[in-house]
Write a structure and sequence with these properties.
This protein has 70 residues and is mainly beta. It is 10% helix and 47% strand. Strand 1 (2-8) and strand 2 form a beta hairpin. It binds zinc ion (ZN).
Amino acid sequence: MKALVYTANEEMTYREEPEPTVQPGDSLVAIEAVGICGSDMHAYLGHDERRVPPLILGHEARGNRYRRSG
Ligand SMILES: [Zn+2]
């Protein structure tokens, strides 16, 4: 899958990433759009020590269920 990845402070890279694995009871969602909020900007600027690159940001997502396990 393609993803916009936070790869370093103030650096994003659009690249191929492995398909996520699905555990029993999980759903895999095909993301269509993601909002960018203040916490994403903190990470991008290197102000959040909990978010270490490489990391796919964007936790405010909209999509359709792609696959469901179990
Ligand atoms: Zn947020």
